[in-house]
Specification:
Oligomer: single chain
Number of helices: 1
Shape: globular
Largest sheet: 4 strands, antiparallel
């Protein structure tokens, strides 16, 4: 299992308090093995992450495009 450090994040806020987030992360598998990658993850209304064993439901193509566009505009997703 990897330790994950969130480097950058953009989110869509929903009326119920939940957030769908797109993150650029560093994955630490050991002291000498790391990877950089991206993930979608939900945040509870209290701000904590909802771990779902690597799976996050993306409600529609629109949400996917909104999040990746925000990250591109911020310069960290190309």
């Amino acid at each position: 299992m990897a330790h994950v450090k969130i480097e950058k994040e953009v989110c869509i806020d929903y009326p119920n308090g939940w957030k769908l987030c797109f993150q650029k992360c560093t994955y630490y598998y050991s002291k000498t093995c790391t990877d950089i990658g991206y993930r979608f993850i939900w945040r509870y209304p209290n701000g904590k992450l909802q771990p779902a064993r690597g799976q996050a439901r993306i409600p529609s193509k629109n949400e996917l495009e909104v999040l990746t566009s925000k990250a591109t505009q911020e310069g960290w997703y190309k």
